[in-house]
Amino acid sequence: MTENILFDIDDTLYPSGEFAALARRNAIKAMLRMGLDNDEEELQKMLVEIIKEKGSNYEHHFDLLLERLKIDNKSRFVAAAVGAYHDTKAAIQPFPDVPSVILKLRDEKYRLFVASNGLAVKQWDKLIRLKLAQYLEGAFISEEMGIEKSTEFYRKIADTLGVEPEKCIMVGDREDLDIKPAKEAGFKTIRIFRGSYSDKPKETVADAGITDFRELPGAIRRTVKKLSG
Predict the structure, then answer these.
(1) pLDDT digit string (tens) for the chain, length 229 residues
(2) CA-CA-CA-CA torsion for 206, 210, 215, 217, nearest 10 degrees?
(3) Residue 121, number of CB atoms within 10 A of its CB
(4) What is the pTM of this model?
(5) Is 20 in contact with 92 (CB distance < 8 Å)?
(6) What kind and span of H or E run contains 18?
(7) In the CATH scheme, what is the code of domain 17-91?
């Protein structure tokens, strides 16, 4: 039996693209309420460019935005933006079809984990707010693994679990990070087509593709049966 199931987090367990857009917009609005005299849409574009440039784990997006605007005494604006961004986290919710499937898989005695790039505390914060953390045995996060998602990342997961790679299934939305390298490492793979990458061509090297999380238990059974001969 393939008993180790690993999930990506962003756009697999919750709509991260939608959340990030809402949080950025709320942060911009908070700075404007604090007295920043700039166009909202222009600020939004600048912030998105900074995030693309520096990456989502950079801790000073708002500081850099204000520096580029040549704003003096920027502390109050940064505080307003950070506060609004974190307040938005109260609205974070999993995709509606996720909790019941996670419970079903747990009840069927699968071992459940997440595999994610990012900072460990930040990723666990998401899982706790999503109310999914208690159903997971653990998380493999790039900061703690010392390597980002790659073939070696997934091989290291199998080694840590003490199992053969074929005893693991990776479930995720990204072909480049979740599917191809996991498959190269010997994992079984299932791609879910939704979220930020749902508009990509539905071509995949994954062992199965789904569009609804409720299809996952059946996809797991079919994949295991097919690959077990």
Answers:
(1) 568 999 999 999 999 988 889 999 999 999 999 999 999 999 999 999 999 999 887 889 999 999 999 998 899 999 999 999 989 988 899 999 999 999 999 999 999 999 999 999 999 999 999 999 999 999 999 999 999 999 999 999 999 999 999 999 999 999 999 999 999 999 999 999 987 777 666 789 999 999 999 999 999 999 887 766 5
(2) 10
(3) 9
(4) 0.87
(5) no
(6) helix 16-33
(7) 1.10.150.520
Tabulate helix, strand, coil % of the chain (nearest 5).
55, 15, 30
Q: Quick one: tokens of 69?
A: 């605007």
What is the C-alpha radius of gyration for the chain, rounded to an integer number of angstroms?
20
* The pLDDT value given to residue 195: 79
**CATH placement of domain 4-14+93-227:** 3.40.50.1000
Domain positions in the chain are 4-14+93-227, 17-91
Q: How far apart are CA 159 and CA 110, in angstroms?
A: 18
Angle (deg, nearest 10), helices 61-68 and 75-88: 140
Beta strands in 60-135 (DSSP E): 111-116
Q: Which residue has the tokens 């109260």?
A: 90
CA dihedral angle for residue 172, residue 177, residue 181, residue 185, rounded to 10 degrees: -60
Taking a C-beta distance cutoff of 8 angstroms, is the pair 92, 130 a contact?
yes
Place of tokens 């900074």: 50
